[in-house]
Amino acid sequence: MKTTCMPDLLNSLASFGFAKVGHLVLDDSRHPKFDLHEVCADHGWVYLWLEVSDSATSVVYVGKAGKTLGARCEQHRGGFKGGSATGTQHAKRLCTGIDAGKRYELWARKSEIITLFGEAGISMSEAEERAFIQKFRPRWNSGSVLDAHGSSITQSPPTPPHAKAHRPR
C-alpha cells in the first residue's frame, strides 16, 4: 500500500484521468452506501476508494465496472449487507474507518476503448484495473500485486503446461 500526501496523490490521479465522483457513507442502518454526485452511465470504468484522514490519504481499493459505475456500486452495496464475505469485510473496514473520523471518496475514470484483432469497442477496464492495483498496491484488494495471469505474485506461479513432466505411456 502506498500512503501519500493528499496533493501529490490527487495530482497523480488527475494525470491518469480520474475524477472524484462520490463518497462512501453510512446509511441509517450503518451499512456503507455510495453517495454519487456524478452520473457515470457509460460502460467500462476503473474506480478507486480513497481513505482520507488528517494525516494521510491512500488508495485502499481498486475495482472495475464492466457495466455502469452505478450498477457496480449497487453490487458492492449488496455485498456490504451480507451478500458476500468480501463485501462484509469491506463494510466492517469502512464502518471502523468512518467511526475513527476517516472519509472515503470514490474516484473513477472511463476506461480506454480499443480495436483488438479487428474487433472494435473492446474495453480496457480489466487491464487498467490490474495496472492500477500494481501501481497503488491497495491494501483491501486481495493479492494486490498480480502477475500477467491475474494471480497474486506472492503465490507460487502455476507450472506452465509445456514445463510439466511428460511421462511415456
Structure notes:
The protein is built from 4 helices and 8 strands; from the N terminus they run βαββββααβββα. Helix 2 (69-83) packs across helix 3. The chain has a 6-stranded antiparallel beta sheet with strand order 1-5-4-6-2-3. It has a two-stranded antiparallel sheet with strand order 7-8. The protein has helices at residues 6-15, 69-83, 85-99, 125-136, and strands spanning 3-4, 19-26, 32-36, 45-52, 57-65, 103-110, 113-116, 119-123. It starts with a strand and ends in a 33-residue tail after the last helix. 31% of the residues lie in helices and 29% in strands. Residues 153-169 have low confidence and may be disordered.
Name the descriptors:
single chain, 169 residues, alpha+beta, six-stranded antiparallel β-sheet, two-stranded antiparallel ribbon, 4 helices
The strand line-up of the biggest sheet is 1-5-4-6-2-3
Which class do the helix and strand fractions yield? Answer: alpha+beta
Note poorly predicted spans: 153-169
Mean of the pLDDT scores?
85
Total count of helical runs of at least 4 residues: 4
How would you sum up the major sheet?
A: 6 strands, antiparallel
What's the topology here?
Blueprint: E1 3-4, H1 6-15, E2 19-26, E3 32-36, E4 45-52, E5 57-65, H2 69-83, H3 85-99, E6 103-110, E7 113-116, E8 119-123, H4 125-136
Antiparallel strand pairs: 1-5, 2-3, 2-6, 4-5, 4-6, 7-8
Helix pairs in contact: 2-3
Q: Quick summary of this structure?
A:
With 169 residues, this protein is α+β, with helices and mostly antiparallel strands.
